[in-house]
């Protein structure tokens, strides 16, 4: 059985010295085509997340995706992270985007 990816990230942060009993600024990352950026951002804003949108660096060889990063300050509760990840996968699918997971800085 594959281990829970959210639990793996929490364990890695803890192993790196992060105090998981304290709130963390979590970044949830999505890739999306330009035509779907606004819809994805709107869907995430409804969840009261702070959103940053990054345009791709122009490349003549490939069509590149925009990166949308949603921020939330929260405790690293695996059950809540599992719920959010499932929710973000569904939102991404609705907007022809991909959810690339989450990360957080180490908190002392």
How would you characterize this protein structure?
- This protein is an alpha+beta fold and 108 residues long.
- The chain has helices at 5-15, 37-45, 78-94, and strands spanning 24-32, 50-54, 66-74, 97-104.
- It is 34% helix and 29% strand.
- A 4-stranded antiparallel β-sheet has the order 2-3-1-4.
Layout of SSEs?
Elements: H1 5-15, E1 24-32, H2 37-45, E2 50-54, E3 66-74, H3 78-94, E4 97-104
Antiparallel strand pairs: 1-3, 1-4, 2-3
Task: Name a few traits of the molecule.
single chain, 108 residues, alpha+beta, 4 strands, 29% strand, globular
Write down the overall mean pLDDT. Answer: 93
Strands across the major sheet, in which order?
A: 2-3-1-4
Give the H and E element order: HEHEEHE
Principal-axes shape call: globular
Termini separation comes to 32 Å
Strand content: 25-35%
* Structural class designation: alpha+beta
Largest sheet: 4 strands, antiparallel
Spans where pLDDT lies below 50 across 5 or more residues: none
**Total of helices:** 3
Overall strand count = 4
Radius of gyration, Cα only, in angstroms? 15 Å
Please give the oligomerization state of what you see.
single chain
Helical content stands at: 25-40%
Report a brief summary of the structure.
The chain is of the alpha+beta class. It contains 3 helices and 4 strands, in the order H-E-H-E-E-H-E.
């Amino acid at each position: 059985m594959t281990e829970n990816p959210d639990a793996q990230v929490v364990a890695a942060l803890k192993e790196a010295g992060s105090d998981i009993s304290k709130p963390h600024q979590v970044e949830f990352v999505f890739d999306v085509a330009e035509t779907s950026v606004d819809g994805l951002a709107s869907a995430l804003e409804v969840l009261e997340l702070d959103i940053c949108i990054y345009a791709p660096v122009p490349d003549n060889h490939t069509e590149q995706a925009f990166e949308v990063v949603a921020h939330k300050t929260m405790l690293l509760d695996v059950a809540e992270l599992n719920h959010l990840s499932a929710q973000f996968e569904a939102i991404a699918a609705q907007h022809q985007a991909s959810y690339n997971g989450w990360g957080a800085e180490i908190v002392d």
